[in-house]
Amino acid sequence: MSYGVFAGSLFLAACLTIIPMEGVAAILRPEWIALVMVYWTLYRDQSVGIMANWMVGLFWDVLVGTTLGLHAGSMALQAYLLLTMSQRLLLFPVLQQSVIVFAVIGINLMLFRWIDGFISNPAIDMGFLIPAVTSALLWPLLRFTLHRLDN
């Protein structure tokens, strides 16, 4: 694993996460950090596991100012789900992988919103799942790009 590509992709994902957006662009913003970690968890599962996802989640909590541990817990669950099915998932075509990416990031978002709802901000509708859709649509491009940079 190229640690420079790993760090660079996380840095770029963090930058894309904190860019101020308004209106429809803010609603459609993909879960960049979660999407990048999906790639690294799947393709470098010996190096990037549950603990690495948890630490990236803590970094994400600090980056965006959410309650400490919210993203960390949901990212750890995301890593667990990916690692339990990684051998099968790697055999799927990229479009089928996109469906799994939608499901995993959707579960990540639901867990985050559920816990955040107990703490302060209850979700009113299911609109919080829109980033899971845009993340799944971007998966083939992100996978191709990171695969080319990593090899």
TrEMBL record:
Entry keywords, A to Z: Cell inner membrane, Cell membrane, Cell shape, Membrane, Transmembrane, Transmembrane helix
Top-level taxon of the source organism: Bacteria
One Pfam entry name: MreD
Transmembrane segments: 49-77, 89-111, 123-142
Annotated compartments: Cell inner membrane; Cell membrane
Membrane topology, record value: Multi-pass membrane protein
Chief localisation class: membrane
Protein task: Involved in formation of the rod shape of the cell. May also contribute to regulation of formation of penicillin-binding proteins.
Similarity field: Belongs to the MreD family.
Protein name, entry field: Rod shape-determining protein MreD
Organism: Allohahella marinimesophila
Gene: mreD
